[in-house]
Amino acid sequence: MMASMEFVKPLGKGSYGSVNLIKFTKHDDCSKPFYYAVKSSNAQDYDSLNNEFQILSKLRDCQGIMQTFGTSLWRGVDDHGNRVYSMSMEYAAGGSLSSFIKKRLLTDRMIRDFTRMILQGLVSIHGNGYVHCDLKPDNLLVFPRYEEAAVGGGGVMKEVSYELKLSDFGMSTEAGEESVFWEFDSPYLGTPLYMSPESVNYGVAEKSLDLWSLGCVVLEMYTGESPWALQDSHEILRHLLDGKSPEIPDSLPWDARQFLQTCFARNPVVRGSATGLLKHPFLLSDQKKVMVTGAGGRRKPVVAVLKSKDVMKKPLRVKIIPPKPPQFKKVVDRPLRLKIIPPKPPGCNLVFVQ
Questions:
Q1: Which UniProt keywords are present, listed alphabetically (predicted)?
Q2: Which of 7, 14, 103, 353 is the most buried (most CB within 10 A)?
Q3: Nearest to 216 by CA among 236, 186, 187
Q4: What whole-number distance in Å separates Cα of residue 26 and Cα of residue 28?
Q5: 289-293 and 299-307 strand pairing
Q6: How much of the chain exceeds pLDDT 70, in percent?
Q7: In degrees rounded to 5, what are phi and psi of residue 139?
Q8: Strand 173-174 vs strand 289-293: parallel, antiparallel, or unpaired?
Q9: Predicted pLDDT at 295
């Protein structure tokens, strides 16, 4: 069945192409239109786009990874008659994490959830032998999930949860390999603000680079500011070579500071692995991400939004326990004991997002 394509709006532009929102409509009155994000590059950037497509194809159905469609790039022409190559990707209606942060103040719980989702994506990437090399808020996409929940009086309330996925694999490199983007005059494998000290020294893509970048992203989610109060790449390079790391505010929760200190460890080995960081105390509390293992070892996430009443608003009950009656021996007067009984936990509703 044939389908028509309609340009909706531009979504972004990078070094190797642009991304537009495209509406696809099947020639069937019963079918609803569906939307794709389409990334296009000129013929001279074909290799970069095709490399990204090949990596995403290997990561298809992996958790925390933006999904692409089709078995190959498709070829077309632009408005000027130039040949272009394109790939279709799922559309993130919430935009990038960068724009998401600018619109609202993230809660501590949301930051922990997002950090967990990013790490789950890194586990997928590193498990397939790649390093992302350009992890930053601009390359993390937000997918809102809406569910309707019944409320008192017969009303309906919409619940929204968010899922975060990694995107833009244009600079991704096989772990242990030298990056083609590293140059002596510009020793960066990705965006300078998010690079690690060892990556600028040697130009080799190691998984520990992504963990340093993760620390920068987590810090930015808490502060709303760039990890470095610098914009000049040469100044950032001097700080990295001098053994400095982004400043961690004392106002952050203790376990969050410990997590960031691990990400910013000078020794890459101390940073551990994405799998290991998922077990850090910063992420072990208040988990709401449920893992479901499907066929072929692929894991699909089920996001659950937990709704419950505020327990602390219920008063505590006090039970007076008198002393036991004396048996055969004389028992002196004993003081009454008080037992504080906390309220029972409320019932919970789980709203699942497919």
A1: ATP-binding, Kinase, Nucleotide-binding, Serine/threonine-protein kinase, Transferase
A2: 353
A3: 236
A4: 5
A5: antiparallel
A6: 76
A7: -105, 15
A8: unpaired
A9: 31
Please pick, among 28, 61, 108, 134, the residue that the annotation labels catalytic.
Answer: 134
| Whole-number pLDDT of residue 304 | 34
H/E stretch holding 18 reads strand 17-26
Q: Looking up tokens 């103040």, which residue turns up? A: 105
User: Exposed/middle/buried for 127, CB within 10 Å: 0-12, 13-18, 19+?
Assistant: middle
Element (H, E) at 219: helix 207-223
Structure confidence at residue 26 (pLDDT) = 79
Tell me the per-residue pLDDT of 120-143, one tens digit each, with 9 for 90 and over. 999 999 999 999 999 999 999 999
39 labeled binding residue: yes
Question: Per the structure block, which two tokens stand in for 138?
Answer: 């601009």
Buried b (16+ CB within 10 A) or exposed e, 204-235: bbbbbbbbbbbbbbbbbbbbeebbbeeeebee
> What SS3 class is residue 204?
strand
DSSP structural state of residue 96 = B
Token couple for 249: 């505010």
pLDDT of residue 345: 45
The full set of domains in the chain, from first to last, is: 3-90 (3.30.200.20), 97-306 (1.10.510.10), 312-353 (no CATH)
For 66-82, give one letter per residue: b (16+ CB within 10 A) or e.
bebeeeebeeeeeeeee
Which is it for the CA torsion 173, 175, 178, 184, positive or negative? positive
Amino acid at 252: L
Residue 261 phi, psi dihedral angles, 5° rounding: -60, -35
Question: pLDDT by residue (tens digit) across 307-345?
Answer: 333 333 344 444 445 555 544 444 445 555 554 455 544
Low-confidence ranges of the chain (pLDDT < 70): 1-2, 15, 28-30, 150-154, 285-354
To the query of whether residue 134 is one of the catalytic residues in this protein, the response is yes
Q: Amino acid identity, residue 121?
A: G
